[in-house]
Design brief:
Organism: Hirundo rustica rustica
InterPro entries: NA-bd_OB-fold, Ten1_animal_plant
Largest sheet: 5 strands, mixed, barrel
GO biological process, one term: negative regulation of telomere maintenance via telomerase
Number of domains: 2
GO molecular function, one term: telomerase inhibitor activity
Helix content: 25-40%
Protein name: CST complex subunit TEN1
Radius of gyration: 16 Å
Shape: globular
Amino acid sequence: MAERLCCYDLARSEAILTAQHNLAQYQVCVDTKFVEPFQAQVGSFYLVLGEAEHREETASPVVKARILTCVEGVNVPLLEQAIQEQRKYFNERQEQKENSIS
């Protein structure tokens, strides 16, 4: 899911992305060390790929970004649909592999 960049702290290499689903608003903390420098555009939509890890000082997970891409102007619902289709394809392929082994 694409999320909006809420704030970016270059000194801490940390960005906060926000997403709203129904009435709930969610925040994701992103470690940006591996993708710097990048042109932070607060308020724009971003897509992040990376590993989630738990930090002892915070109760919530942090995503260590490997890819952080601005997707402003992209048809986000269509992008999300494409991601769902890809996941469905990979799941079906995995099931076929498991069935052929047994």
